[in-house]
Amino acid sequence: MAIKMVLAEDEALTREALAELLQLPGDIEVVAHTGRGDRVLDLVNEHHAGLAVLDLHMPGTNGIAVAEQLNRERAGFPVVVLTCDGRPGYVQRALKAGVRGILTKETSIRELSRVIRAVHAGGRYIPAELMDEMLAVGENPLTDREAEILKAAADGRPLSAIASQLHLSPGTVRNHIHSAIHKLKAGNRISAVHAASRAGWI
User: Fold this and answer.
1) Given 137, 165, 189, which residue is the final one in a domain?
2) Which one of 47, 129, 169, 183 is separated from 77 by 20 to 30 angstroms, measured CA to CA?
C-alpha cells in the first residue's frame, strides 16, 4: 500500500514539482497538496492521509501551528517539516508540536522520500547538525510574554509604543525586557533582540 500524504508548500512551482517527484518510486502517493496551512487538516481527513509534509514557513498558518493542530486532532499523526531556516528555536518548537521529521530545503528528493518512509513507519529524523546546534544553544529561557515583547522591540520602537501595541503598561514592558536581557546575558535591549533572533526564539 502506498503512503498517502498531504503536501503543504506555499510556492506553487516547488509544491507541484515535489508532488510529481515524490510519487515516481510508486510507494508514496500525494493525495492532495495546498499552499495554505489552514487547509491541511481538512485535506488529511478528506483523503484519509497517513502523513503530512509541511513547509515550516507559510503565510497565515505556519508549519508548526499546523503540526500542533494535527497532533491535537489526531495524536501521533506523522508530520515531516521542510525548512530553509534551521535555527534551534524553530527546531525546538517543531519537536514540541509533535513533528517527527525535520529536513532543510537543501535535501534531495531521495533523502526526503527516505525520511517520509521512516517517519510513516514510526521513526524520527533530525539532521545531526540541527540537533547539535539545538543542544548547544539549550532550552529557550524566555517566557512567551518576554519573547512577544522582544519581537515587538526588534525595530527599536520606544517602550511606550510597545506597551500600546500589546496593551500593557510601560512598566510591565520594561520589567520583561530587563528580565530577558538578564536571561540572555545581553548588554542591552538590542543585544537581547539579536541573541533571541539568532536562536530562533523570536
Assistant:
1) 137
2) 129
Task: Show which of 137, 154, 174 is a domain's final residue.
Answer: 137
Q: Write down the residue that cell numbers 489526531 correspond to.
A: 74
Beta bridge partners of 83: 104
Number of domains in the chain: 2
| 74 CB-side CA count, 13 A | 17
- The residue whose grid cell reads 502523513 is 51
Tens of pLDDT, residue by residue over 137-152, are 888 899 999 999 999 9
Q: Which residues pair with 104 in a beta bridge?
A: 83
Residue numbers of the domain that contains 24: 3-137
Sequence-ordered strand ranges (E) for the chain: 3-8, 28-34, 51-55, 79-83, 101-104
Contact between 8 and 16 under an 8 Å Cβ cutoff? The reply is: no
Are the CB atoms for 190 and 180 separated by under 8 Å? no
